[in-house]
Amino acid sequence: MKFHVLTLFPEIPQAFFDNSIMARAVKKGIIAYNLVNIRDFAFNKHKSCDDKPYGAVNDKHVPGMLMLPEPLALALESVGAGFKSPETASNRPRVVYVTPSGTPLTQRLAQELSHEEELVFICGRYEGIDQRIIDGWVDDEISIGDYVMSSGELAATVIIDTVYRLIDGVISSESLAEESFSDGLLEYPQYTRPEIFRDMSVPEMLLSGHHENIRRWRLRKRVEKTLRVRPDLIEQARISGSLSEEAEKIIKELQNGNGSDPNDRRKPEKG
């Protein structure tokens, strides 16, 4: 997959692409990226990319500044994302505008985006971008949450991170299989060495070596946490048919007051 990021500050997403799992995916050739500086398409010597919005009332200016449409349109066209039309629908990359007023980002949407060959991200600044760009070039408006940020670059990297890790070869399928939201449930708690840390012990079940019991324990913990933190996910999983019969049985046990698990914790040995 190739990511095109249209931005006024390319150094921000550059750091993301240069580090950790993303850097390894780029080195392997699984991921490619192109950072496009929108200022390169500005017309004046100051490389200005913003202006005051229309709509003054009683001689009072609309607050804030808006990104100019022409430099942004040229930047989009430079990566093959021309004006939307039935004729260009099959041969132009999917264009995403990151905005608080967009569709909420979900794991399901990330899965959908991960099947694209190319994605183009518009990183807004100031009060956003001219609506004509949205109408003529943007395919998806996506929000990462119900809050406002000053940087579209940060929000774009969040979306890219949720998408690229789902592409074959980036992360093992085993690691993805039991992650939060993979089947409508949150992830189970995990532990590492030492076995006893500041009088807190690793649950005895995880030390038992009994694979099936460990699997059931983890599922129970996933159900417990989802019911406690995100009960809405349980209903969504039921509607989509992704909630297993085993998980439903655990839910009933917990709701009937049989939720205690004697294998949760071991008392630390006193020496």
Automatic annotation (TrEMBL):
Q: Which domain of life is it from?
A: Bacteria
- Where are the compositionally biased (Basic and acidic residues) regions? 262-271
Ranges where the tRNA methyltransferase TRMD/TRM10-type domain occurs: 1-236
Catalyses which reaction(s): guanosine(37) in tRNA + S-adenosyl-L-methionine = N(1)-methylguanosine(37) in tRNA + S-adenosyl-L-homocysteine + H(+)
Name the UniProt key words of this record, in alphabetical order: Cytoplasm, Methyltransferase, S-adenosyl-L-methionine, Transferase, tRNA processing
Enzyme group, top EC level?
A: transferase
| Residues making up the signal peptide according to the UniProt record | none
Q: Name one GO cellular component term.
A: cytosol
Matching Pfam families, A to Z?
A: tRNA_m1G_MT
Q: Where is this region: Disordered?
A: 250-271
Q: Where in the cell is it found?
A: Cytoplasm
- Say if the entry is tagged with keyword Aminoacyl-tRNA synthetase: no
Q: What is its main location?
A: cytoplasm
Report the GO molecular function annotations: tRNA (guanine(37)-N1)-methyltransferase activity
* Swiss-Prot/TrEMBL GO biological process terms: tRNA N1-guanine methylation
Show the Gene3D superfamilies listed in the entry: 3.40.1280.10, tRNA(m1g37)methyltransferase, domain 2
Family statement drawn from the similarity comment of this UniProt entry? Belongs to the RNA methyltransferase TrmD family.
Subunit field text: Homodimer.
**What functional role does this protein have?**
Specifically methylates guanosine-37 in various tRNAs.
For this protein, the record's PANTHER family field holds: TRNA (GUANINE-N(1)-)-METHYLTRANSFERASE
The protein depicted here goes by the name: tRNA (guanine-N(1)-)-methyltransferase
What lineage is this protein's organism placed in?
Bacteria, Pseudomonadati, Spirochaetota, Spirochaetia, Spirochaetales
